[in-house]
Amino acid sequence: MTYFKLILMLLNELDLTNESQPMLTSDRSPHWSTPVRIRAMHKNSRRVLLFDIDGTLLDPAGEGRRSLRRALEDVFGVTGPVDTYDMAGKTDWQIVTDLMRAAGLDAETIAASLPAAFAAYARHVEIAAPTFKMRPLPGVLDLVAQLAADPRFILGLVTGNVREAVPHKLRAVGLDPGAFTFGAFGSEHHDRNRLPALALYRLEQGLGASVPPETALVVGDTPHDIACARHSGLRVLCVATGTYPRNALVSHNPDFLLDNLGDLTAVMEILGSF
């Protein structure tokens, strides 16, 4: 039994058999929730990078919040305190639940409508994406292109975003969703801490081999990214490109901390030797 399958079984909250729902894809985009065949991983030979999206790869510029507001209006008829709620590092599952609780809805009503809310959010993101003001953060386009072409690395996503919205956000800033071959998403569990193990379990299924925890690194911009890495026994690289300044991240003791991903030499030194 692999390390990450054991973690998931111990958590006893994730259905390991329900992984077949496809996501919206381009010709090159993977079905991130299903096992994808990837070149075999030999011990100590490949490094696994688990990227957050908002605040790490791109500046969302409030676009996700606007799309979520429209989705909540469509599905629930209320938005709750969506304009002031701190979304950084949280899953969309948690965000929707918190906002609707604040709006006075009961837990049963919220839970029953979560799938519709996620679908509505993805739809609004897709519709609005061509006019998004989102932008890639410093160094991200060059870094992802370099990593995707480097056989030493396997790129994945661990993000609070609704799975089906992710390809539209990535394409909006010039990133190819196909660069990321597996992942776990904020529409799959309310607790971000559960996501790295789910992502790596899926990778193990695709590889047909175990992934040693020491070969995986979370890349994010919030204390929640640090916490989810620690929860799964992984190391973490934090960047101060989101809503948390460098001094706030330092207090959470990430393994690596950079102002941004703009210095490719410095970034690659970390990624190649962690």
Q: Tell me the number of strands.
A: 8
Strand order of the largest sheet: 5-4-1-6-7-8
Can you tell me the CATH superfamily of the largest domain? Answer: HAD superfamily/HAD-like
Biggest sheet, open or closed, and with what strands and sense? 6 strands, parallel
Low-confidence stretches: 12-30
Quote the distance from N terminus to C terminus.
25 Å
Radius of gyration, rounded?
Answer: 18 Å
How many structural domains in the coordinates? Answer: 2
DSSP helical segment count: 10
Strand content: 5-15%
Helix and strand run: HEEHHHEHEHEHEHEHEH
Q: Please tell me the CATH architecture of the largest domain by its name.
A: 3-Layer(aba) Sandwich
Helical proportion, percent range:
25-40%
pLDDT averaged over residues: 89
Structural class: alpha/beta
Shape: globular
Q: What is the name of the CATH class of the largest domain?
A: Alpha Beta
The CATH topology of the largest domain, please?
Answer: Rossmann fold
Tell me about this structure.
Helix 2 (63-75) crosses helix 4 (107-128) and helix 3 crosses helix 4. The chain has 2 domains: 3-12 and 28-60 and 134-271, HAD superfamily/HAD-like (Rossmann fold); 63-131, Orthogonal Bundle (DNA polymerase, domain 1). The model is unreliable at 12-30 (pLDDT under 50). It has 10 helices and 8 strands. The strands form 2 sheets. It has a 6-stranded parallel β-sheet, sandwiched between helices. The protein has a two-stranded antiparallel sheet with strand order 2-3. The protein is of the alpha/beta class and 274 residues long.
